[in-house]
Amino acid sequence: MKRFSITLFLCGFLTTGFSQSLSKTDNIKNLLELTGSGKLGVQVGQNMINSFKKSYPNVPVEFWDDFLKEMNSDTLINLIIPIYDKYYTESEIKQLTEFYQSSLGKKVISTMPLVVKESMQVGQTWGKEIGEKVYSDLKEKGFVKKE
Prior knowledge:
This protein is mainly α.
């Protein structure tokens, strides 16, 4: 009888824990779909492929098309879910979902690609200016031979 009770307890505990895990996973997947994370990732991948196409113009279009078929948002989402699971509680995932369903959250989702793109451009310019200044100062102080 004692073994039966322990077995029943363990089965109930494992089932409850597993179903909570699935629920959190489903909530994370819903959040990632809501924010368009998978689609954004695929777009980044497509942009990378476009860069490769320019660098390797002799490669047949079919090669790139076949490669693009392998990239899909579901695969990326499944790779990202464990990261969200690691850093956010189920309650936090639900709060994030509520935020992204609000009017401000929807605005953040719609403007984020533009904000990221413009921020990257500013960051590249800023990084280039810093690099040039460092190089100039190194030359001025004699750490780099003047040309």
